Amino acid sequence: MPETSSGKSTGCLTSMTIDPKQFGKNREEIYSQLTQQQIETRPVWKPLHLQPVSKGCECINVQ
After folding, report:
1. In 1-63, which residue ranges form alpha helices assigned H by DSSP?
2. N or C, which end of the chain is more exposed by having fewer CB within 10 Å?
3. What is the distance between the alpha carbons of residues 16 and 21, in angstroms, rounded to a whole number?
């Protein structure tokens, strides 16, 4: 994720979004390959605005 002028990353959490069609592998395939290389990974939580509890709530896009 790109940094904004309002803050600076500590680098303690690296996340990425993968398009399986474009990348050629899905999340599980990437997880398996990284695990074989002893690289710890885990899926990240679903964003709050996509959680069922937030359905129908007003959302403001701030960038």
Report:
1. 20-23, 27-36
2. C
3. 15
Single-letter code of the amino acid located at 32:
S
Nearest partner of 48 among 59, 40, 39, judged by Cα: 59
Q: Which residues contact 59 (CB under 8 A, 6 or more apart)?
A: 49
Tokens representing residue 47 in the block: 């964003």
- pTM exceeds 0.70 for this model: no
Structural contact between residues 60 and 54, judged by C-beta atoms closer than 8 angstroms: no
DSSP state letter for 44:
P
47 closest CA partner among 27, 24, 11, 17: 17
Tens of pLDDT along 15-50?
888 899 999 999 899 999 999 998 888 888 888 878
